[in-house]
Amino acid sequence: MAQKSRMRGFDLRQIEYFCAVARTGSFTKAAEDLGVAQPTLSEQIAKLEKVLGGALFERLNRRIDLTPLGEAILGRAQALLEDAAALPEYFERVREGVRGPLRVGAIPTIFPYFLTPLLRGFTGRFPEVDLHVREGTTTELVEQMLEGMIDVAVLSLPVEGAGLVMKELFRDPLYLAVPETHPLAGEAKVQLRRVSEERLLILKDGHCLRDETLAVCDRARARFSGQFEAEQFLTIFELIRAGFGVSIVPEMARGLSGGCQLIEIEPKASRRIGYVRLELRYLSKPLEAFTGYLKEAAEKRKR
Predict the structure, then answer these.
(1) Following CA atoms 224, 230, 235, 237 in sequence, which dihedral angle do they give, to the nearest 10 degrees?
(2) 3 pLDDT band (50/70/90 cuts)?
(3) DSSP secondary structure, the chain, as one string
(4) pLDDT digits (tens, 9 = 90+) for 148-161
(5) pLDDT band at 248 (very low <50, low <70, confident <90, very high)
(6) What does the pLDDT look like over 221-238, one tens digit per residue?
(7) Gap between the Cα atoms of 105 and 277, Å rounded
(8) pLDDT digits (tens, 9 = 90+) for 283-292
(9) Sorting pLDDT into bands at 50, 70 and 90, what band is 79?
(10) Distance separating alpha carbons of residues 237 and 86, to the nearest angstrom
């Protein structure tokens, strides 16, 4: 412990003086090269030797040679100076470039359908961003954001929470999904009251799409004969194909709907897709690049 504490007592200036003497082989020449008085240089070398617990130079007449201790630390000392000299350029690159960690979260009804297809393009454009992604419910993601575990969440708006910045990206239309053999399968539009006697297939509690689905049904005054709760869309679509019931699904999940018919709900219904970040959190270059990439993708989707 004593040695560890003692090692904290030197600074880069002393290392610079040591390397200069080793390079020139002279205290006088090193002082001239550095533009300092020789007594000042000698004093700092002496302090460094005291911290290290041994002499760094042997003074033989007019010749200055490194001691074994001096030879042992010279390479490391030169590397420290090179690293220190490179710091300003590195900081400038960090300031101007897009690099560093980025932690992104998304809800299950958005992650595989909207976010996942974008990840390869984003990492290709910004290869120096260390991207981490995670899936969770809206409540989980907001809590993780407030705790500093993620930087941004892609989800359905709005969300509750103080100090949050919310940005809508696009509207994701909601459709009534029925089996291809259903009497309404050929309809272009449908009022939900026409399927009031059906079984409603719905995601389990905790998924925001569940709440949005029930809100759409309440506005339409649609009362279903029963409900069946599932963890994911895959199960819901399989049940629809089997004729077990109907569901309300988003446009972005259309790729799973083979064997089902998606019918536009009248009046039209949709959910707001966007991202949320902390208002007071530093807007890093990776986060700024990612939100810009989301906006770009949303504009392409609208077109």
Answers:
(1) 30
(2) very low
(3) -HHHHHHTT--HHHHHHHHHHHHHS-HHHHHHHHTS-HHHHHHHHHHHHHHHTS-SEEEETTEEEE-HHHHHHHHHHHHHHHHHHHHHHHHHHHHHS--EEEEEEE-TTTIIIIIHHHHHHHHHH-TTEEEEEEE--HHHHHHHHHTTS-SEEEEEEP---TTEEEEEEEEEEEEEEEETTSTTTT-SEE-GGGGTTSEEEEEPTT-HHHHHHHHHHHHTT---SEEEEESSHHHHHHHHHTTS-EEEEEGGGGGG-TTEEEEEESS--EEEEEEEEETTS---HHHHHHHHHHHHHHHHHH-
(4) 999 999 999 999 88
(5) very high
(6) 888 888 899 999 999 999
(7) 11
(8) 889 999 999 9
(9) confident
(10) 57
pTM for the model: 0.68
Q: What CATH number is given for 172-271 in this structure? A: 3.40.190.10
As its CATH architecture, domain 2-96 has Orthogonal Bundle (1.10)
Q: Mean pLDDT across the chain, nearest whole number?
A: 89
CATH classification of 100-169+273-302, choosing from 2.60.120.10, 1.20.1250.20, 3.30.110.40, 3.40.190.10?
3.40.190.10
- Let me know: does 284 contact 151? Beta carbons within 8 Å: yes
